[in-house]
Amino acid sequence: MFGRNKEEVPKSVLDMKLEKEKREKEEKRKSRKKEKKTVHNCIDDVTKRKIKKIILILIIIGLIFSGIALGISSQNWKSLVTDMFNNKNSIVIDTDGKTIAELRIRTKKIRC
Length: 112
Description:
The chain has one helix and two strands. By secondary structure, the chain is mostly helical. It has one helix spanning 11-84; strands at residues 90-93, 99-103. It has a domain at 11-86. The N and C termini lie far apart (125 Å).
């Protein structure tokens, strides 16, 4: 139908071919971008999961240490309370080491 010369081919046909080539190039470029985005999204998902795991582990470790600290401090408070309520007399001593006074603790007697 048309000869091999470009001059013999109508301009509209050449324009259509150029448009088609442009569209194909654009589609290839877009598909490459999508592939890159999906790879980056996968990397982001993996790093997000790792960060979440690390944060969760840190929270668990913090809870364990705070539980240990709470147990130790409660044990210290318990020993302080038992020492405070021990029924021992206080002795006042002077600089020579002689006993000046003995203070007795007043305790309430519990009637049954």
